[in-house]
């Protein structure tokens, strides 16, 4: 049987406006450094977020929920992404926006459940029989196509593997040749091949070759010790959603399936509740046996006021279940009507009973100096040059509007500077684009002043 790793189904994030953020910027005591890791000010919220990170890492947080609440543009989304950075890539982090649940094809609760399972990781440790070493030779042996015709096919592949202890030459099945090609294995790479499944894993380039062209993307690994043929502990990090997908569509990710095969007959199916229950059962069994370890991650629901009463109820229940991630909500709403109800008004549009179990982190508006610092950071990240005077104009404008508005003015201001054949953004560029583009507050004001001129 041909086997691959379970493919990761992690979502790629749309974070282009947050690319300057690299972490929470705390010192070793958990105190916020005024400007660090791309974050400026908002010290209390950052320190609170740091405690949340520690609790997640020490697994004291599963099934709990946090709410980031504050006015628009006060860094709620930024801090949530900083939490993700601090957690590292071994802890799953699944971002979503409240409005994502409204789809004409998928049920609201189904969308939530999927994202829930994207935020729960499983670390599987297995001892596997492998051939491991640095590739010294890789030769596909061709034969005439047995079906006739002129084409040739690979009958087998000869591979040489070297470790610190010795070398071995193997004659392998052509299906493994495909896996070798998929992993882009070349001589000089360190790989291992699982004996039972034939899965190939490229671990990196042997550090004997570290001096040739130094491609930054390349990872150099030492020549493996021990024999070529041995038992090896293999660790795989997957999410429950990865498992759902792998088992619903047998063509991908058959590795976990081979483990789960004892319980489930692979069939091409949708991800159903039944499938999820089966997977949970197997997962629990592995946890009991010590083969796997649960890694509760983070489900981040931005703009949580967009959820309705039905999804809130569902969420509340899901948080109570034995396997639950940490949920982080964010909202800029004050008291408002809970969606899906006629007239129930609640703080942040969240039902009181759910609100009651949240830890709430508040974000506050920025000072003018902080706004200038953040705008400067963004300018550097976007590769723009900005005059001190222009920066101070933006700072002042920011106190009257929002941080997001002034950050967004940077790009058009850079354009007008370029039109005027300058490389530096000047005060006049800011004034020009400031007059062209309205911020939300002024726009709303104009609307109320000129009610009669607009269509209702
Ligand atoms: N403390 C900060 N340090 C550096 N950059 C920040 C900080 N706070 C916000 N930003 C940046 O300012 C912009 C707006 O912030 P963000 O989107 O996080 O606000 P928000 O609180 O989520 O607003 P909204 O309620 O409208 O969603 C983003 O580009 C963000 O990266
Ligand atoms: Mg936001």
UniProtKB/TrEMBL annotation:
It holds the Pfam family TIP49. SMART domains: AAA. It catalyses: ATP + H2O = ADP + phosphate + H(+). One of its GO terms (cellular component) is histone acetyltransferase complex. Keywords: ATP-binding, Cell cycle, Cell division, Chromatin regulator, DNA damage, DNA recombination, DNA repair, Helicase, Hydrolase, Nucleotide-binding, Nucleus, Transcription, Transcription regulation. Residues 62-365 form the AAA+ ATPase domain. It is found in: Nucleus. Its EC number is 3.6.4.12. One of its GO terms (biological process) is DNA repair. The keyword DNA damage applies. Gene3D superfamilies: 1.10.8.60, P-loop containing nucleotide triphosphate hydrolases, RuvB-like helicase, domain II. SUPFAM superfamilies: P-loop containing nucleoside triphosphate hydrolases. One of its GO terms (molecular function) is DNA helicase activity. Coiled coil: none annotated. Proposed core component of the chromatin remodeling Ino80 complex which is involved in transcriptional regulation, DNA replication and probably DNA repair. Belongs to the RuvB family. This is RuvB-like helicase. It comes from Odynerus spinipes.
């Amino acid at each position: 049987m041909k086997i691959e790793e379970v493919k990761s189904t992690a979502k790629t994030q749309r974070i282009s406006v947050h690319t300057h953020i690299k972490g929470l910027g705390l010192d070793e005591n958990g105190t916020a450094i005024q400007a660090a890791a791309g974050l400026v000010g908002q010290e209390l919220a950052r320190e609170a977020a740091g405690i949340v990170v520690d609790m997640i890492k020490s697994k004291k947080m599963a099934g709990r929920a946090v709410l980031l609440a504050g006015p628009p543009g006060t860094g709620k989304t930024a801090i949530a992404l900083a939490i993700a950075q601090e957690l590292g890539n071994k802890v799953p982090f699944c971002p979503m926006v409240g409005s994502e649940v409204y789809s004409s094809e998928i049920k609201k609760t189904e969308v939530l459940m999927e994202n829930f399972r994207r935020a729960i990781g499983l670390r599987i440790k297995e001892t596997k029989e492998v051939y491991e070493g640095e590739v010294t030779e890789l030769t596909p042996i061709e034969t005439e196509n047995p079906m006739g015709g002129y084409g040739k096919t690979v009958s087998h592949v000869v591979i040489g593997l070297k470790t610190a202890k010795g070398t071995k030459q193997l004659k392998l099945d052509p299906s493994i040749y495909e896996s070798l090609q998929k992993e882009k294995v070349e001589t000089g790479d360190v790989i291992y091949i699982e004996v039972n499944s034939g899965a190939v894993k490229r671990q990196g380039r042997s550090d004997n070759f570290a001096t040739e062209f130094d491609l930054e993307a390349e990872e150099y690994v030492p020549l493996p010790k021990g024999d070529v043929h041995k038992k090896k502990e293999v660790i795989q990090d997957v999410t429950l959603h990865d498992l759902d997908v792998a088992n619903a569509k047998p063509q991908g990710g058959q590795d976990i399936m081979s483990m789960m095969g004892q319980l489930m007959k692979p069939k091409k199916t949708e991800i159903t509740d039944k499938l999820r229950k089966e997977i949970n059962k197997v997962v629990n069994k592995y946890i009991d046996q010590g083969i796997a370890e649960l890694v509760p991650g983070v489900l981040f629901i931005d703009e949580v006021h967009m959820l309705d009463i039905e999804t809130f109820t569902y969420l509340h229940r899901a948080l109570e279940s034995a396997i639950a991630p940490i949920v982080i909500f964010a909202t800029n709403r004050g008291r408002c009507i809970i969606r899906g109800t006629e007239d129930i008004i609640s703080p942040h549009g969240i039902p009181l009973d759910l609100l009651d179990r949240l830890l709430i982190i508040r974000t506050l508006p920025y000072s003018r100096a902080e706004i200038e610092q953040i705008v400067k950071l963004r300018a550097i990240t976007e590769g723009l040059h900005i005059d001190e005077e222009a920066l101070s104009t933006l700072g002042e404008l920011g106190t009257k509007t929002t941080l997001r508005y002034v950050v967004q003015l940077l790009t058009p201001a850079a354009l007008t500077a370029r039109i005027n054949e300058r490389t530096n953004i000047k005060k006049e560029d800011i004034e020009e684009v400031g007059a062209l583009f309205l911020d939300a507050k002024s726009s709303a004001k104009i609307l109320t002043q000129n009610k009669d001129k607009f269509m209702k």
